[in-house]
Amino acid sequence: MSENISVLGLGLMGSALAESLIRAGHHVTVWNRTPAKADPLVAEGATRADTPAQAVSASPLVIVCLLDYPSVLETLKDVPLEDRVVANLTTGRPAEAREMAAWVAERGGEYLDGGIMAVPHMIAKPGALILYSGSRPAFERYEQVFGAMAASRYTGDDPGMAPLLDLAMLTGMYGQMAGSLEALALVRSAKYPLMEFTTELLVPWLNAMAVQLPQWAKEIEAGDYRTEVSNLEINRAGMENLVRAFEEQGVKLDLLLPMKTVIDRRVARGLGHEGLSGLVEEL
Ligand code: FVH
Predict the structure, then answer these.
(1) In this predicted structure, what is the pLDDT of residue 229?
(2) CATH 1.10.1040.10 placement within the chain
(3) Whole-prediction pTM
(4) Is 75 in the pocket of ligand 1 (CB under 6 A)?
(5) C-alpha radius of gyration, the chain, whole number
(6) Bridging pattern class, strands 110-117 and 151-154
């Protein structure tokens, strides 16, 4: 079914979202602070709004994708939101999302927050995911529309949940990147071919290691960190070994040393028999 949808914010991501909605056959109204960014979308069939208020009045569903939450507040500050669903896909913090939900509700609107797990060129393609939280009725009303942009997943009525999960996913990604950069620096110091190392060794290894994460989830939820596989004492010795090897190769281990500190702390508490998942109690 074709819906009226307004998109506020036509940066790289907002433009990709608007384009996917136009291509799915919806009536899309677009607004951007710098008007020229709307031109390609208008050429594809979108309607241009001259002001945020004009854009919001054009559609019951308003998708917002701006730089940050202050820019969203600035954009919507004098705009009536009665009977509007505001789906704010701007990246932010859980506390900002909760404040924004209350702010929108005070103005008569329903609120959904969204965490985009994709880069612009992935929008409307397999692999793109958007996490939503906030008003369940609003999500259910527009679930099909959201499906044109990316796979969608509702994560609960706390508006802060989607941004929290978004940040959690990014945290996992940065951790993996930090370890991988250290690995690449070490391998480069020995002049081993980096392409061969990544494709044939590191990537399969990381994939094999990632399958243990659900087991960690089970242990953390149970608060039971006993292990027969690889306890903290073994990992402490492994980390010592890493530190020495990196020193000998002349490479800094700065991105990984905080993990060693936490392992040492837990072992010093007499918990060296536990598994790595127990480190969560130190955080
Ligand atoms: N691009 C990406 O890979 C990531 C993927 C994950 C999600 N993020 C988040 O999406 C939000 C928008 O990101 P973007 O890529 O579209 O960013 P830009 O291309 O830099 O566009 C920024 C838009 O925000 C407008 N804007 C900035 N400040 C204001 C303001 N004070 N009032 C009104 N609009 C404002 C800007 O307008 P203009 O500069 O064109 O006039 C753009 O429309 C973001 O939260 C990412 O973290 C993307």
Answers:
(1) 87
(2) 165-282
(3) 0.94
(4) yes
(5) 23
(6) unpaired
CATH number of 4-157: 3.40.50.720
pLDDT reported for residue 20: 98
With a CB cutoff of 8 Å and minimum separation 6, the contacts of 222 are none
pLDDT at 8: 98
Secondary structure of residue 136 in the 3-state scheme:
helix
Mean pLDDT for the chain overall: 97
- Given a cut of 70, the residues of the chain with pLDDT beneath it are none
Q: Whose CA is nearest to atom 31 of ligand 1?
A: 71
Beta-sheet pairing, 47-48 with 61-64: unpaired
In the chain, residues under CATH classification 3.40.50.720 are: 4-157
Given the candidates 1.10.10.10, 1.10.1040.10, 1.10.3720.10, 3.90.1150.10, the CATH classification of the domain at 165-282 is 1.10.1040.10
Q: How would you list the strands of the sheet with 47-48, edge to edge?
A: 47-48, 27-31, 4-8, 61-64, 85-88, 110-117, 129-134, 151-154
pLDDT digits (tens, 9 = 90+) for 139-198: 999 999 999 999 999 999 999 999 999 999 999 999 999 999 999 999 999 999 999 999
Asked whether 119 lines ligand 1 (CB < 6 A), one says yes
How far is the centre of ligand 1, averaged over its atoms, from the C-alpha of 66 (Å)? 4
Contact between 276 and 235 under an 8 Å Cβ cutoff? The reply is yes
Residue 61, classified by CB atoms within 10 Å of its CB into exposed (0-12), middle (13-18) or buried (19+), is: buried
pLDDT at position 242 is: 97
